[in-house]
Amino acid sequence: MITELKSIPDIWKRMPSEMHARRFLENLIWSTGRHCPHCGSVASSPLRGKTCRPGLYQCRDCRLQFTVTTLTPMHSTKLDLRVWISAMFLVLTSSKGISSVVMARLLGVNQKTAWKMGHAIREMMYYRNGELLPLEDIVEVDEAYVGGAPKSLSGAYNKRGKGTAKPMIFVAASRDGQARARVVSDYKRTTLEPVLLEWVDPATISLMTDGSKSYIGLGKTMADHQSVIHSRKEYANPETGAHVNTADAVISQVQRALVGVYHNLGGQHLQLDEIVWRWNHREPVREVVKQWTTRAGVAREKSTTIWRPIPVVDQMRVLLQGAVGKQVRRSKEYGLCRPLC
Ligand SMILES: [Zn+2]
Predict the structure, then answer these.
(1) Are residues 264 and 305 both part of a single domain?
(2) Cα-to-centroid distance, 338 and ligand 1 (Å)
């Protein structure tokens, strides 16, 4: 079984035929055993007739036929499945996201096709983000205005800080490495509270915020609340351990990924979900930064913790385990929609 994919040529080398790619996807999507996407039954048998499509199964309960891509965003795709795996590889490994134009060039497909694949992959990220567990322990929250093309290019003048027309995001980050983010309409307590309650269990967390007024009332409903007053040039409180540096780091990731894409964020969540996905799929790794030998001949080393993305195949597994039921179709307005709309 393939546990690591290093590059796009590596994908094509390890999967010399489309059947290999199909087996790879089956291992990821059905890691707990094959199940029917129509009714969920685990009783099914392969169909191997000459006229059958490869990888076709029939459910013994509902009698419907299915393959590994049925009812997923790859449903009835005409593309080679290796192209889909390569597209997932590109989205999951590009630290600032990848445009459909670049993806089309790298994969040798039409730009519209690349756009559709990119969106289908981000839709899956969106749903998986929605299924995450509540944030725990120390949770930092912060907010920021993000995006905005450079003035010289857009001709638009965006005010800084409060009162700007830029989209506002609200971020919560646990110090154990998990984060959530959402576009919000304003920073009033009535807006932020329901969002935060979706992300945390208020009885168990210690909330860390800056001195903004909206957080005073909000903090009272949490088990504990500490704040740092930025206007007093206080950025960390050594006594209480209060700081919002983790939340700020998430915000700076968002800022960096969104340079110039100001218009798209307001109404939609997908880009934000992609950035948060990347943040949430990292693991702490101890890495040696310096090695030396003392005069007495003792070998010493200095190491530090860095956060590295988890292997791309593991990310694909998380992504694809929620893929069934996330079928997307092109809408009449050249957008994408789920079968319901
Ligand atoms: Zn069935």
Answers:
(1) no
(2) 21
Distance (angstroms) between ligand 1 centre and the Cα of 57 equals 10
Please state at what angle helix 111-130 crosses helix 270-280, rounded to 10 degrees.
60
Q: Cα(34)–Cα(70) distance, rounded to whole angstroms?
A: 12
Q: Print the domain residue range for 256.
A: 138-268
Q: Are residues 164 and 214 in the same domain?
A: yes
**Amino acid at site 266:** G
Does pTM top 0.85 for this prediction?
Answer: no
Per-residue b/e over 313-335, b at no fewer than 16 CB within 10 Å? bbbbbbbbbbbbebbbeeeeeee
Ligand 1 centre distance from Cα of residue 63 (Å): 6
Each residue's pLDDT expressed in tens, for the chain with a length of 341 residues: 888 899 999 999 999 999 999 999 999 999 889 999 999 899 999 998 888 888 999 999 999 999 999 988 888 888 999 999 999 999 999 887 888 899 999 999 999 999 989 988 888 888 777 778 888 889 999 988 876 555 555 455 555 555 566 778 899 999 888 999 988 888 888 889 999 999 998 888 889 888 888 888 888 888 888 888 877 777 788 777 788 888 999 998 888 877 655 555 544 566 788 888 999 999 988 888 889 999 989 999 998 888 889 999 999 999 998 777 777 665 555 555 554 33
Centre of ligand 1 to C-alpha 76, Å, is: 18
Considering the domain architecture, whether residues 173 and 264 belong to the same structural domain is answered as yes
* 243 shares its domain with 165: yes
327 CA distance to ligand 1 middle (Å): 17
Ligand 1 centroid from CA 30, angstroms: 14
**No. of helices (H) and no. of strands (E), the chain:** 12, 12
Q: In angstroms, what is the span from residue 102 Cα to ligand 1's centroid?
A: 39
